[in-house]
Write a structure and sequence with these properties.
CATH architecture of the largest domain: 2-Layer Sandwich
Strand order of the largest sheet: 3-2-1-4-5
CATH topology of the largest domain: Nucleotidyltransferase, domain 5
Number of domains: 2
Oligomer: single chain
Largest sheet: 5 strands, mixed
CATH class of the largest domain: Alpha Beta
Radius of gyration: 20 Å
Helix content: 25-40%
Shape: globular
Low-confidence stretches: 195-208
Strand content: 15-25%
Length: 296
């Protein structure tokens, strides 16, 4: 179960001067089944690295061989490390209420949230920015947007790739370069609302479109799920984008609308949306006809 979809922090799109870069290393990809092996952060003030946090984490189970090969973190290295119940509260206290920055940061947040649940500590709610989202918007010509790809693109040396502190330092450098591109292209906060740029405009992100800001879909985060009768899903997404909607593909606490196709009531996204509504999310669920009513 990925807890990120109920995370209450907001994704921001404004270039920052003050923030904290975070990264975790883990024993696998699934936060509910795998463990954290290392947690790190780089505190930034005025776009300068002013403080760092890093700790290995003792795991309950052996680290898989393929993960040891990838990260270089061995069972011997973590056997005397502090447990998550000790490291995580200290890390969250160190973070304070800083905006978090990370590469594919929902992955890191999801693991930290599961850590909060297993350690029985209050979950955090920091706002965040994702360098992956920025790079996809600003560098659409790149076939892949992994941290390694971005380091190669910008000529950044990551001393120890897949070690969390080194990845934090590399992500910090990538974020600065991406902010430089935003300044160079003179993009506004409106331009940087992911999904608001029209699909055709992604070939040249310096092109801006005018939208009717009074339209009910303008600036809303929308998800489409299932099969639709009147048009293909991609066509519906493009129509929503034309109205200034932010088309995303995962249901979260910040989603505004879920539009579902025929027979989607038992789909995972639909059930997540219903659960989020029960938990207080301001999320509305409409079928295909409801979408076209809003579109009119």
């Amino acid at each position: 179960m990925n807890l990120f979809w109920i995370y209450q922090g907001k994704e921001l799109t404004t270039p920052l001067q003050d923030y904290t870069v975070i990264d975790v290393e883990t024993t696998g990809l699934k936060a509910d089944l795998c463990e954290i092996t290392e947690i790190s952060g780089v505190r930034v003030r005025g776009q300068k690295n002013v403080a760092e946090f890093s700790s290995l984490v003792r795991t309950l189970h052996p680290i898989p061989d393929n993960i040891i090969s990838l990260t270089g973190i061995s069972n011997e290295m973590v056997k005397d490390a502090p447990e998550l119940e000790e490291v995580l509260p200290a890390f969250l206290e160190w973070l304070g209420d800083d905006v978090l920055v990370g590469q594919n940061i929902p992955f890191d947040i999801s693991f930290l949230l599961h850590g909060c649940r297993s350690a029985r500590i209050e979950p955090f709610h920091n706002d965040y920015e994702d360098t992956l989202s920025f790079s996809r918007l600003l560098l659409p010509e790149m076939p892949h947007h992994r941290l390694g790809n971005l380091c190669d693109h910008f000529g950044i040396v990551n001393e120890q790739a897949h070690r969390s502190l080194s990845d934090c330092r590399a992500t910090f450098e990538v974020y600065k370069r991406l902010c430089g591109l935003i300044e160079e292209k003179k993009l506004t906060a409106h331009d940087l609302s992911f999904g608001i740029l029209h699909l055709e405009d992604k070939k040249d992100v310096s092109v801006r479109r005018e939208y009717d800001r009074s339209h009910p879909l303008y600036g809303k985060r929308v998800v489409f799920t299932g099969s639709f009768k009147r048009q293909k899903r991609k066509e519906l997404e493009a129509m929503a984008s034309d109205c200034g909607a932010v088309v995303v593909h995962e249901i979260s606490f910040t989603t505004d609308y879920l539009f579902y196709g025929e027979g989607s009531e038992n789909a995972v996204r639909f059930k997540k949306a219903e659960l989020l509504k029960e938990q207080g999310a301001q999320l509305q669920i409409f079928n295909e006809d409801g979408f076209f009513e809003l579109l009119a």
